[in-house]
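User: We ran a pulldown and think these components assemble together. Before we commit to crystallization trials, I'd like a predicted model of the whole complex to look at. Sequences follow.
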Amino acid sequence: MTPIEAASVILSEAGYRRINGPLKIAGLPFEFPAVFVGGAKSADLIAVVDTAFETEAKIEQNIQGFARALDVLKSRRPITLIVTGPRPSAPILEAMSNVCRVLMADNTSDAERLRDSLAVLLPLNLPNPRDGQSDAGSGLDQLDRSDPFVNALIAASISGEAAVKKTFSASIEEPFVKADPAPAIQRSTRTRSPGRKPLADEA
Amino acid sequence: MARLLKRVTVRDFRSIRGEIAVDLDAPVVLIHGQNGVGKTSLLSAIELGLTSDILSLRRIDTGIMKFLPNRDAGAAGGKVILESADERFNKPAEIFVSAEQIRGKGLLNEQEARFFNERCYLAQSTLSRLLEIYQQQETRQSDSALTRFVKELLGLYRYDALINGLHAAGDVRRLREPAPHYWSARAEIAEIQTSTESLNKQRSELAAQVQVHELGVVQQLEIFDPSLVWRPLDIEAARMALNGGNREADLSKVARARRDATAASDQLKNLAAGQSGPNRQTVEQASISAESAFQQWQSSTGVPLSDAIKSLSAFISISSVQANPEAARSDAVRAAQAEIARVDKIISDDAAVAARVQQLMIELAASKARGEVLDSQIAVLSGTNASLVTALSAVAAHIHTDDCPVCGRDYSEISHRTLSEHVSEKIATLVEASGRLQSLAGSRASTTTSISVAERELGSLSAKRVPPPELDALKKRRVQIDELRSRLTALAREAGDGEKLANSRTSMARVLAELNARDQSLATLLAAIGRIATEMEVVEDGTADVRTRVEALTAELTKREELLAKQQSARSGALTELAVVAALRAELGSCDEAIQKLGERRLGLAKAKAISDQRLEAARDLVAQVLNARTAVVRDVFNGELNAVWRDLFVRLAPDEKFVPAFAVPEPGSGPVEAVLETHYRSGGKGGNPRAMLSAGNLNTAALTLFLALHLSVRPILPCLIIDDPVQSMDEVHIAQLAALLRTLSKQKERQVIVAVHERSLFEYLSLELSPAYEGDRLVTVELGRAADGMSTVRWDTKTYEPDRAIAA
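Assistant: Here's a predicted model for the assembly, 1012 residues in total across the polymer chains.
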């Protein structure tokens, strides 16, 4: 499979329609090894060339003319030139870039690399989107909270590390503090500091 | 899905002066304007209208709010009205801003606002914040910018709060500060263990000592009073018995009796020693014979002596009657001699007086004769008068001529001498006679005195004279006494004999008296012994002799005294031991108490510690669970999916980059999971830190695509992307790719895309690239500017789909 054909396969799969035969714009014929137009919601016009078969100068000349012809017709289709084969010289490449998007597909033997080179033309396949509000908290809620001490710790995590530390040390200390026999966990729920969010069991 | 943004009206807000209204009702809105005309202000206005806050700016400067109204706007302040095409927001948001406050409510709720801020609006500040992630050298640092970003993103702070907050639970040593009671209780339990052991040791030592001293008490009690020995030892009873059993009085009584008895014994010994002299009978006989010999002497040889003394005593008194004949004789002789001397003196004194009287009589007669001579001479001179001399002397002073000053007669008529001579001679004569008369008178007076002296002595001497009869009697008496003296002197030998006899008699009588006295003593001694025996209730052998009795008594009393002394000593020893036992028992009691207290304290601490330990265990479990859960969350987020989206987006924008950025996918069981950035070779295998591996432009691209990946990897609550000038430091290739990507997002993913750019050519390029491509598709281009008076101007244009005439689709 020639590089042009390989690219053509990918583009076809992506929903681009290949225009068969010589492309005529305002009566002028333009010779490109393969030309594609976009599908339902795309106005893209894609030409695929191979510097192995044509000189870069000819390609450049060709694409310049193509772009000018479209401009004359006030076409708003964006042009993309897919260049397979050896990379054109810098001035040629720059001249090409001035009139169209140039995608280099110079290593087409690797299907994956080729696909990467054409990626910008390909539909975006997204994985099943997750909920934007992360379920981070739900992981905590799934923990066993039957122990009031553990429950207090998890509840305190809303207020941050310091609150967890405070709850933890108060609970560790509580059995030793005989002066105030009220358990630290209960105490913390009664004397709520202002601005603190209520604990889960209070809500 | 309805478009979120429909229209925004902005008045005097930040760099926008005056009022502008921009239509946003299109899938794509392109905003162009030179720097400073208000692109970012317009986007901020949209943010304000949505969230009633401008977090994107507040992240940079918390004091930004007071600069929200345009500085030239005046007191009215700024205003933003935002309309949404979404039916949910049927009422436009109207927000008023002044330097003091923001008034009005944005369209979005809190959750949506957060989503918007984090995943929809890529402000330039946010982009630079994302870039920070890459600039962080140590991505493993727990508080790196990336980690913060990720934690905020995932709400991991609660996990971290638990994990870090319970850090102390991991190691008991960390509890020292947060849980000082727990910490000290651990040490205290160990201390209590040690203390209890040492107390137990002390206790057993004390118990042993108590036994020893109780045994001591029993031993002493056995000596003191065996009946008091009972077991177990009742300290109080024993003490009472001992206190009541003081035998000191008994002891001193016995001791006194024993001493008396000993003294009696000693006396007896002395008496026995005196018995070695002459026996009584001999002495009595010798006494009688000495007495009779003396009496015989008195009635025979001693008679002349006694007669002589008797005769003498008729003349003179003899002071004492001596039993001793020789002494009596000597005394009498001495008395006689003294009397003779006295009489002799009286006689001789009287003779001397008589002689003196004779002499005085002669002197008296001479003196009287002289007196008579003197008297006659004085009579001759009696005409002279001393006063006449004085008078004449006074008159003489007045005689200057021979005329008499007294009678006036001329003296020269009668004498050839002068009157003055005559008076002076008269005066001289008178003065001479006066001297003689004075001397005669003196002699006469001394003569009279000597006569009276002699007469007075004569008188006193006459009184001293012994009358002659008396003198005669004295002389007779002297003779008689002298005779008696001679007789007594001659009796010296006889008197010596008598004296010997008297002496013998006297010594015999003394020996007898001594014998009598000893007998008396013995009787007294016997009575004393009997009294002691009776008093001390000692049964005596009445038949035994005195010495045996005394010895038996002494022995008995000594025995009793020794017993009593022993008992007393045992009593005091027992009391001492009892005190020791009581003290030891008290110590033992307090020791027991201390042990019990320690035991209770330890029990309490152990109980408390058990609870705390249980909690510690629970905390450790919790930490482990949270770590697992956290790991699960991180793993869940930083799975291949995010990386896949990111990679896809990054590859689209930088197709030539060999590396792609990625979050390290956490390996199972590799400890705490952090969000770590790395790069991957596109062909596979890991690269280094993105900062080291990627060019600046590609870093920017990486940040931009991370933002887009984060937007795309979750359910689109708000299908909207607002990007403020994203192309800074992007090369043209990237820009072309970005345009394609934005188109994909808009057309394929149906996000409303609002992009602000400041570069004209880019604006033109994007306008072309994002042109409406199908029926119903639209593009709004907005050009912001500023009029000459500084008022903001806006020109916006809506492009709709036009079928392509060049190439039919």
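Residues 137-142 of chain B have pLDDT under 50 and may be disordered. That may be worth checking against your pulldown data before setting up trials.

User: Thanks, that helps.
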